[in-house]
Design brief:
The strands form 3 sheets. A 6-stranded parallel sheet has the order 7-6-5-10-11-12. The chain has a 4-stranded antiparallel sheet with strand order 2-3-1-4. By secondary structure, the chain is an alpha/beta fold. Helices cover 35% and strands 22% of the residues. It has 12 helices and 12 strands. The protein has a domain at 1-83: 2-Layer Sandwich (Alpha-Beta Plaits), CATH 3.30.70.
Length: 302
């Protein structure tokens, strides 16, 4: 267990909520014997304090105490290891509702009037209530016969989650390898990866016959296990220690890679995912992942 940690407070850059009052409350909430070394990473958006943990339970005790003191503030409270591996060399990111704001299957369902039905299946899968693979087959089956040109029309409407561009650009500028892994479809990951500068991408392939969706997905279906496998494979190929890796996602199918990464982040995630991640972001955008690594705002790239 490392003994050096950083308490990191972040808020939404669109509505900065991290003022002097919040910082003072955080400092006063530190357990006895800790001497924080505070510093702004971005005025109003991100602040950190370094401390030395005296026992295995102290990092969580610090996080819990500060979070309790800041309950009334829209601020994310996290504790991360403050060591040589804090700035990660591998990013493995989920795509839908993490890097982009949409769930592509749900959007496609709009074209056949089945959004509510398919969205409910999506939500249950992301909460871990049903197996991802079976949920994907069921949802794709309902799209059989849809004109394939709707894929491009949907892509043209896709919006990025704020901070996505800065996250990828900054990590790549600092030598990190960035991978986009999704239980969605290669039609979208290929375009999003190119748009943001990811080094690689992986997802499922939709079957298209005579210009229409066939209602099936090519085997093997890439879900929870494939995401974990991608993290492990890239870690090995790049000659990295697992502590040098960062994984981020929002759903139950992201859980295994989030658990395995040196820094696993639940981003605006379902409760089952947030409960098991090393860090959780509810209020901030994706630049919070840079602050967790100790980057200052003036170090961001685009």
């Amino acid at each position: 267990m490392p003994d050096r940690y950083a308490l990191v407070l972040t808020s939404s850059p669109a509505a900065p909520a991290l003022g002097r009052d919040a910082v003072d409350r955080a400092v006063s909430a530190f357990p006895d014997g800790l001497s924080p070394d505070p510093g702004w990473l971005a005025e109003g958006e991100a602040w950190q304090a370094a401390f030395v943990a005296k026992g295995p339970g102290e990092p969580e005790r610090v996080r819990s105490a500060v979070a309790a003191a800041l309950t009334d503030f829209p601020i994310d409270v996290n504790v991360v290891a403050n060591d040589a591996a804090r700035r990660k060399k591998l990013l493995v990111a989920d795509m839908e509702s993490t890097i982009i704001e949409q769930e592509c299957l749900d959007e496609l369902a709009d074209h056949i009037g089945l959004r509510d039905r398919i969205s409910e299946i999506t939500a249950r899968a992301m909460r871990g209530e049903i197996a991802f693979e079976e949920a994907l087959k069921e949802r794709v089956g309902l799209l059989k016969g849809l004109d394939a040109d709707v894929l491009q029309k949907l892509y043209d409407r896709i919006t990025l989650v704020p901070g996505a561009r800065e996250l990828v650009a900054t990590m790549r500028k600092n030598g990190a390898y960035c991978a986009l892994v999704s239980g969605g479809f290669t039609f979208f990951t290929e375009r999003i990866a190119k748009r943001l500068g990811f080094d690689t991408h992986q997802a499922n392939r939709l079957a298209i016959v005579d210009g229409k969706l066939a209602g099936t997905v090519a085997s093997p279906i890439l879900g929870r296990e494939a995401k974990l496998a991608a993290l492990k494979r890239l870690t090995q190929e790049l000659g990295l220690d697992p502590q040098e890796t960062l994984a981020v996602g929002d759903g139950a199918n992201d859980l295994d890679m989030i658990r395995a990464a040196g820094l696993g982040v639940a981003f605006r995630a379902k409760p089952i995912t947030a409960a098991e991640a090393k860090a959780a972001i509810r209020h901030g955008d994706l630049t919070a992942l840079l602050y967790l690594q100790g980057y200052r705002k003036d170090e961001f790239a685009r």
